[in-house]
Amino acid sequence: MRDIYTLIIRNKDHLLYFFVFFLSLSLLFNNESPNILLIRAKANDRFSKLYSPVVWYKNNINLKNEINFLREKNIQLSLKVDDLVQSGLQNEYLKKLLNFKEESTYNLRTAKVINLGSGPIFSSLTIDLGSKDGIKKNLPIITTNGIVGKTILINEETSLVQTINDANFRLSVKILPSEATGIMRFYDNDVFEIREIQKNANIKIGDKVVTSGFSKIYPEGLNAGVIAEIIDNRGSFQKVARSRNPYSENNNLYVFVVQEQN
Questions:
Q1: Is residue 148 located within the same domain as residue 113?
Q2: What's the average model confidence in pLDDT over 23-34?
Q3: Fewest CB within 10 angstroms: 36, 123, 140, 177, which?
């Protein structure tokens, strides 16, 4: 207690100054006379000018925070829109698969592509059906666009598929409407080459290419592309045609295994 008393006595001038100062401010702001109101207005104006940098700084900080908040919301909304678009596309894709399966004259099993094994020598993919699902070697694999390949290695739960863009893949095809036949093989990108076409075959660009039915693996009439180029050398006894095939290994989430014709 004595220490507090000593501190008050020692700083009585300062304490008296602050007491008088705050008492003056109290009287000033509680007085409603015109002169006091004028002084109060001028003081408020001066204080506002002095405080304006602080206000500007706070507004700037709030604006940056709001911009960041709006950016985050914009990103979230963009992601939601992308999800909706992807869901819509996947829904259309699955609906297309279902319609194709229902309208097909073949007994089809739907399989999901779980791995791509494309390389410089061997091109393949892996599906999630195996021997326990009744899958056997040399079964045709197709999509709604046509030929994908054939099963070559069967495990219990998965199967390895050799795709048509493999360098060693061969497919017996015919060209409509002329019914000219040939052997199709991969050439480059989405282009395939059809050899052993008769010299007098009446084929033209835009003709449809389908499986011939001569193979023990592929039934007749499966889509295999469209003629894009015809090479007819005078010194050759056969024609060569190049076709474009809609198969793309990166666009197939699901494929069909052709088990037998209905």
A1: yes
A2: 59
A3: 177
